[in-house]
Design brief:
By secondary structure, this protein is mostly helical. The protein is built from four helices and no strands. α2 runs antiparallel to α3. The longest helix is centred in the middle third of the chain and has 37 residues. The termini are far apart.
Length: about 160
């Protein structure tokens, strides 16, 4: 028994340097100076810029209102289709395609809105601006900026 303990301790002791050296050594790199990432409300905007953003936002919200209602309706229809055993697979696919088309239209409207907003900023303001802060669901279009999406439990 003593021999077994001795062998185990010896193996661990001798293997320690190999484990320690097997980890990559991180070279200290100078950090780049980061500019803060801000929403348009946090950037110093002139009254004229604020007015332009307000007008663009009103137009955007007007344009997407019906799209969002229709998208919600199609999602509810798909939910009912999925629960109905009488609905065929092709109908499910068609409903899913309708939802995808609406999401695409919504994404295009969002991009058009952000392009309008971008044109209002100065070069310095653009460097500090984070478009994903303008529209909460814009983050869905830019998944690399977020962690994994939470799908929730089936009971939620």
């Amino acid at each position: 028994m003593k021999t077994l303990k001795f062998i185990i301790i010896t193996v661990l002791f001798l293997s320690f340097p190999f484990f320690a050296l097997s980890q990559p050594i991180e070279v200290m790199k100078p950090k780049k100076a980061r500019t803060p990432c801000l929403s348009s409300r946090e950037i110093n905007l002139t009254q004229e810029q604020l007015k332009g953003i307000r007008i663009a936002q009103q137009e955007y919200l007007r344009d997407i209102r019906l799209l969002r209602i229709e998208l919600l309706s199609k999602r509810m229809e798909l939910r009912e289709f999925l629960k109905n055993p009488q609905i065929n697979t092709e109908s499910l696919r068609e409903k899913c395609n309708e939802i995808t088309d609406l999401q695409s239209k919504l994404n295009i409207k969002t991009l058009e809105y952000l392009i309008k907003i971008r044109s209002i900023f100065t070069q310095e303001q653009l460097q500090k601006w984070c478009p994903e802060f303008e529209i909460p669901f814009f983050q869905e279009m830019m998944p690399h900026r977020m962690g994994p999406m939470h799908m929730g439990s089936p009971n939620e």
